[in-house]
From TrEMBL:
Family to which the UniProt record says this protein belongs: Belongs to the ABC transporter superfamily.
Domain ABC transporter: 2-208
PROSITE patterns in UniProt: ABC_TRANSPORTER_1, ABC_TRANSPORTER_2
Keywords linked to the UniProt accession: Amino-acid transport, ATP-binding, Cell membrane, Membrane, Nucleotide-binding, Transport
Name of this protein: ABC transporter ATP-binding protein
GO MF: ATP binding; ATP hydrolysis activity; branched-chain amino acid transmembrane transporter activity
Keyword Transcription: no
Pfam families xrefs: ABC_tran
Provenance organism: Rhodoferax sediminis
Highest taxon in the source lineage: Bacteria
Annotated Gene3D superfamilies: P-loop containing nucleotide triphosphate hydrolases
GO biological process, one term: L-amino acid transport
Length: 209
């Protein structure tokens, strides 16, 4: 369903990804491993259309999307949760959820809150007053409000309290059981044991296993 072929990405004159090709099938959980600076974030951003300069082909559900703007990629089912979460910290939890929402908003909100019940108890709280783990749950829930079929997650369990790591992991595994496809960059092996496959990036190149 997702196919990346011969992807190269540059930041200015510096090349960050070299000839990366991969496929992710519908319903899979694929973990993307690699050291700091290996290119994990760059790969997820390129798939979402957020790279400054990229060449190569990206298709999703048989549509060539490599020239599409990020919002158009979101419309066909791609959802991206950045490592820094990118919440609107001046807004409440509810406002953050509704800002990006599309489609049947009440149903999507109910589904997101079912996945992360802790958020339901803090809907009127400014997101600036949440812990790192709570913010991570909100960032994922907000992306779910767009109805993604493929979730691209950058270090979802990094730097958050163990109890909330567990909540995030359980929620992601439930999403997988509901049929959502997951491509997850992580270094801390929280989801690796549940992965259908693991891909490893090193210095911008995908390693052959
Ligand atoms: P980390 O876990 O530390 O984020 P990563 O595997 O996600 O690591 P990337 O953030 O994708 O790696 O970085 C890949 C390479 O691209 C690194 O050499 C990094 O310095 C460089 N890079 C990333 N973002 C930028 C940017 N905005 N401008 C210039 N270079 C960048």
């Amino acid at each position: 369903m997702l196919e990346v072929r011969h992807l190269n990405v540059w930041y200015g004159a510096a090349q960050a990804l070299f000839d990366v090709s991969l496929q992710v099938a519908a319903g899979e959980l694929v973990v993307l491993e690699g050291l700091n600076g290996a290119g994990k974030s760059t790969l997820l951003q390129a798939i979402m259309g957020l790279s400054p300069r990229a060449t190569g082909a990206i298709s999703y559900q048989k549509k060539s999307i490599e020239r599409w703007e990020p919002h158009r990629r979101a419309l066909i089912g791609l959802g991206y949760v950045a490592e820094d979460r990118r919440l609107f910290t001046g807004l409440t939890v509810r406002e953050n959820l509704r800002l990006a929402a599309r489609g049947d908003v009440p149903a999507r909100e109910a589904q997101a809150l079912q996945l992360f019940p802790a958020l339901a108890t803090m809907l009127d709280r400014p997101s600036s007053q949440m812990s790192g783990g709570e913010q991570q749950m909100l960032a994922i829930a907000r992306t779910l409000m767009t109805g993604p079929t493929l979730l691209l997650l950058d270090e979802p369990c990094e730097g958050i309290a163990p109890l909330l790591v567990e909540a995030v992991r359980e929620a992601l595994l439930l999403l997988k059981r509901q049929g959502v496809t997951l491509l997850v960059a992580e270094q801390n092996q929280i989801l690796a044991a549940h992965a259908d496959r693991t891909l490893t990036l090193a210095a911008g190149r995908l390693q052959q296993c």
